[in-house]
Structures are given as structure tokens and as C-alpha cells.
Amino acid sequence: MSVSITALYAGLLALLFIALAARISLLRRKHRVGIGSGGNQELALAVRVHANTAEHVPLALILLLIAELQGLSGWSLHLAGSALFLGRVLHAVGLGSSAGLSAGRFLGTALTWTVILVLGGMLIVHSVFA
């Protein structure tokens, strides 16, 4: 069975993850910080954005993969994958620009959590009633 839908979003999210890591590397060089944030707020935010992505994306992709393997509809998988990707981009932009509240951070978190909750719920329903 092909898992091309999950592969698409895993690939996009991998590129985002590397872009976030590269931003940290550039900021470390700019501020001459080898590890941690060196007390620099901009670097600390970049580290948190990257870590938050590392914390949420693996579970979401596992759920997306299981949903695809279970035969859930392509449109629902694309909806979940695109919402996840958009959510991570919004979160990165929102948190990357301000440690306080921001629309991007809020919407990104909301989209990410919604994708995880909906996919989890769909898998439970599919498992019980399939």
C-alpha cells in the first residue's frame, strides 16, 4: 500500500524543520553562542520554535500515517496534512517574532492540536466501527 499522502507532508515538514534548524545556526553565529541561547532573546525564541516543532510533528505524522494505512479518505488526509503544515508555519512565524501572544502562535497551536485531536478521534472511530 502506498503512503504517498503522508510522504508529501512528511517531506514538507522535514524541509520546515531544517529551515528552523538553519535559522538557529545562523543566529548562533551572529551572536557568537555555541550552546543554549547565551541570554539572547531572538536565539531563545528560535530554539523554542524548533523544539516545539520537534515535539508536535512526530505524533501528528504517525497519526497521519496510520490513518492513511487504515484507508481513510484522501481528501481528509490532505486536509489534515495541509492544516498541520500551515499550523507549524504560523506557529513558527508567530513565536519567532514575539515571546508574547500573537495570532500566528495561537492559530498555529490551534491548528496543530486540532489535527492531532481529529486524527486521533478518527482512528478511534475507525477502529471501533470498521
Number of individual domains? 1
CATH domain class name? Mainly Alpha
Number of strands: 0
Question: What structural class is derived from the secondary structure elements?
Answer: mainly alpha
- Main sheet summary: none
Q: What CATH architecture do you see?
A: Up-down Bundle
**Which segments are poorly predicted (pLDDT under 50) over 5 or more consecutive residues?**
none
| Radius of gyration based on Cα positions | 16 Å
Query: Which sequence of SSEs, written as H and E, runs from N to C?
Result: HHHH
Q: Write out the CATH superfamily name.
A: Membrane associated eicosanoid/glutathione metabolism-like domain
Q: Determine the mean pLDDT.
A: 93
Q: Give the overall shape, derived from the CA principal axes.
A: elongated
Our count of helices gives: 4
The name of the CATH topology is Four Helix Bundle (Hemerythrin (Met), subunit A)
Distance between the termini: 18 Å
Helix percent reads: over 70%
> DSSP strand (E) fraction?
under 5%
Pick out its properties.
130 residues; mainly alpha; Four Helix Bundle (Hemerythrin (Met), subunit A); 4 helices; 83% helix; elongated
What order do the helices and strands come in, and which of them pair?
Elements: H1 4-31, H2 41-69, H3 74-97, H4 103-129
Helix pairs in contact: 1-2, 1-3, 2-3, 2-4, 3-4
